[in-house]
Each structure stands twice: as C-alpha cells, then as structure tokens.
Amino acid sequence: MVVAERRGKVLVISMRREEKRNAIDPDMTAALSRAFDALEDDPHLHVGILTGTERVFSAGNDLRAGSGEATARGGAYGLISRSRRKPLIAAVEGYALGGGFEIVLACDLVVASEEARFALPEVTRGVIALYGGLFRSARTLPLNVARELLLTGEALDAKRAHSLGFVNCLTPAGDALSRALSLAESIAANAPVAVQHTLAVVNAFARADDEYGWAQTESAKAAVWSSKDMQEGVRAFRERRNPQWSGF
Questions:
Q1: What are phi and psi of 29, to 5 degrees?
Q2: Which helix (H) or strand (E) holds 236?
Q3: Beta strands 117-119 and 88-92: pairing type?
Q4: Whose CA is closest to 128, among 224, 247, 24, 234?
Q5: In-domain check, residue 246
Q6: Structural domain of residue 47, as residue ranges?
Q7: Do 101 and 120 meet the contact criterion of CB atoms below 8 Å apart?
Q8: In a domain, 235, yes or no
Q9: C-beta of residue 149 within 8 angstroms of C-beta of residue 156
Q10: 50 lies in a domain?
C-alpha cells in the first residue's frame, strides 16, 4: 500500500492502492505513519515527497473500513497533526479528494500536473471536512475560493490552483514526481539545520490558530453528526442515488 524509496537525501513516499483510488484504510494509515517517522528520525534524510499513482493522488478515507485510529506522532493518516522538522512536498497526479486534499494541505509545498484536481466534496454527502480542510483551505487559498470549494464541493483544477499560488510548480501529466524531486534536491542541497529551523518558524506562524480551528471543527462535527441529513447523505452515497435533504 505504501512504498518508501530513498533518493539520496530525499525520501519518496508513494501511496499504491490505485484500485481503491488510494483511499486510506487503517493499514495504510499505519504504513504512512511509519514512513513519516522514518523521514523525521533518519538524520541522512532531509526532504520528503508524498505522492500517489499516475491516475490518482488519494480519495481520502476508505468509506467502508475507515482510516483507522489517529497515530501518536502524526494524528489522522499519520500526518495531519504531525509536528515536522523536515520539508514535505506533495506531488499530485489526478484527483486529491476530501481527506486526500487535506493531506496536500498538510504538506509544505505542492507540485501538480495539469490534470490534477483538488476537492472537498463532503457537503455533497451531508458531512464536513474533518482533517483540517475547514481552516487550512481558508488559510492557504483566497478566502472566497475556500468558501467556494467547501460550500459547493466542486473541484479546483491545477491551473487555477497554480494561478492562486497554492500549487508551486505546474507540470505536464506524468511529470509531477520528477519535478518534485528536482525541488526536493534543491532544498536538500542547503544546510539542514537552517532549513529545518526556517521551516519551523514559518509553520509556527502559519499554524498559530490551529488549536482554535480544531476546536471549531469538533463543534461543527458534533452538530452535523447528529443530523438526519448526514444519515441520508451516507445512505444515498452507498445506494448510489441523489440524497433527499430534510434540513434537519
């Protein structure tokens, strides 16, 4: 499900469950967590890259098995609430949906192919983004664009994401990983102590309000999870039909 490959000072972590659109189940969460632990703990590794397969980055939670328990060091998916010292680059081909997009939002830099798409479709199923999407999207994208994604559930294409400054590097289809490797090698060529402390300051500043964001997310979750609309949304998704919302 997860392959971790060393490329000099760079660790490439690949999600390999394409038949399930790289949906994250408990086994994948555990494997991702081990890979991120290895990146942080090995002094010879300076930069990480997280990628999927040629057709999809990740569709987020496995809707049948769930994504498993949050890990001690990384939280959901072994990453979402991880305190990291080393830069992590998302290399995105195809769709990053729901939790898959939230994984990208948890990374430091984004390289995407022209065919990449980002979406938080939770409201179309009667649920909400639980793993930072509600506040990290609003921090990373222009506020009205974040609202658009969160309230419509529609996708943001890579070209627009690049023009908005969310995607650092835009590549032809199939080239996201190679461009991410070039970017990672440029970072890894620099002094690791300086890179790590620079990243720590930038991320501390950017994430100063995370505790408030998580608290508000939990409050919204409590309200939504007790609603009839959520039950209907999940039921309609499983039955492959359009939901009939009641507003309760």
A1: -55, -45
A2: helix 228-239
A3: unpaired
A4: 224
A5: no
A6: 2-172+191-203
A7: yes
A8: no
A9: yes
A10: yes
Query: CA–CA separation, 13 vs 5, rounded Å?
Result: 7
Task: Say which CATH number the domain at 38 has.
Answer: 3.90.226.10
Q: What is the pLDDT of residue 244?
A: 96
Q: What is the pTM of this model?
A: 0.96
Is-catalytic flag, 122? Answer: yes
Residue 88 buriedness (CB in 10 A; 0-12 / 13-18 / 19+) = buried
CA distances from 201 to 5, 159, 207 (A): 28, 29, 10
40, 93, 102, 115: the catalytic one is: 102
- β-strand pairing of 169-171 with 117-119: unpaired
Give the active site residue among 122, 185, 232, 239.
122
Task: Name the stretches of the chain with pLDDT < 70.
Answer: none
How many separate domains does the chain show? 1
Q: Tell me how far apart the alpha carbons of residues 5 and 12 are, in angstroms, rounded to a whole number.
A: 5
Q: Return d(Cα 4, Cα 32) in angstroms, integer.
A: 9
Helix (H, G, I), strand (E, B) or coil at 89: strand
The full 3-state SS of 173-190, as one line of letters, equals: CCCHHHHHHHHHHHHHCC
Rounded Cα gap, residues 203 and 151, in angstroms: 27
